[in-house]
Design brief:
- Helix 4 links the parallel strand 2 and strand 3.
- The protein has 10 helices and 7 strands.
- With 256 residues, the protein is an alpha/beta fold.
- The N terminus and C terminus are likely disordered.
- Helix 2 packs across helix 3 and helix 9 packs antiparallel against helix 10.
């Protein structure tokens, strides 16, 4: 897993920056009721999406939260007075505080099912009846865009996806949240080139193989033979799922 304390300074530049944040915020807001009053953005990172969520709806009171202090430092500069440093498994808010909760690229980091269940339980607790939770799903597979790079890497052994849609939905239902819609956004600027893929293979990404393993070296060699080593292939398309807390509220639920 990445060290997000160290990655904070370069995080946005390596993940599409402002254009990707625009796309993500627009897709997330499409799944959130227009009359929502308070929103919590879990794992808000550098705050680029959090800031857009707040700016797009002036009547929406947005709070961002992240566990990495370096990320909180950066996001607090973008959304002053609205960012907290805390753990998503134990939210520092009373029950039924928010009309909406969001998380962009959070659940895939939680390999332990107990951690995921804790997050969903906390999300359900702080949501008001009828409130909406919107989260990304299947992050790793979103990068499979049918490119020549994907064809080379197909035989690799993948780790199980903590944010697979069925897994996410099962946790949601267990916590008392029901499916309420789907969406997607383009990961602008995140298409992979053969050269960047080789670098990432060396970090141990893409598979359960450790860096330096013979199979990892073989995959890197095969990728190095592809044409246009510095040309980025198609951008990934990331999926979103929305879930609604059971019960009634003054805020009308989103209908997919």
């Amino acid at each position: 897993m990445l060290d997000y304390e160290k990655e904070a300074a370069s995080y946005d530049a390596s993940r599409g920056g402002e254009a990707r944040a625009d796309a993500a915020a627009e897709a997330v807001l499409a799944l959130i009721p227009a009359r929502a009053g308070r929103l919590l953005d879990l794992g808000c990172g550098t705050g680029t999406v959090t800031r857009r969520l707040a700016a797009a709806r002036p009547d929406l009171r947005v709070t961002g939260m992240d566990r990495a202090r370096a990320m909180v430092h950066r996001s607090a500069a973008l959304v002053p007075g609205a960012i907290l440093c805390a753990d998503c498994r134990q939210l520092p808010f009373p029950d039924a505080t928010f009309d909406a909760v969001t998380s962009i690229w959070l659940l895939h980091l939680l390999a332990d099912p107990a951690d995921r269940r804790a997050v969903f339980a906390e999300v359900a607790r702080v949501l008001r009846p009828g409130g909406t939770y919107v989260t990304t799903v299947d992050k790793a597979r979103s990068h499979d865009v049918g490119s020549d790079i994907d064809a080379v890497l197909t035989p690799r052994t993948r780790p199980p996806a903590a944010d697979a849609p069925d897994t996410v939905t099962a946790h949601a239902v267990e916590a008392g949240l029901i499916p309420a819609g789907e969406g997607h956004f383009v990961g602008v600027g995140q298409g992979r080139s053969p050269r960047t893929t080789i670098t990432d293979l060396g970090r141990g990404w893409f598979s359960t193989l450790p860096p330096g393993a013979p199979e990892t070296t073989r995959f890197a060699e095969l990728v190095s033979r592809l044409p246009d080593q510095d040309r980025r292939r198609a951008d990934p398309v990331f999926g979103l799922r929305a879930y609604r807390k059971r019960g009634e509220t003054g805020v009308p639920p989103h209908l997919p």
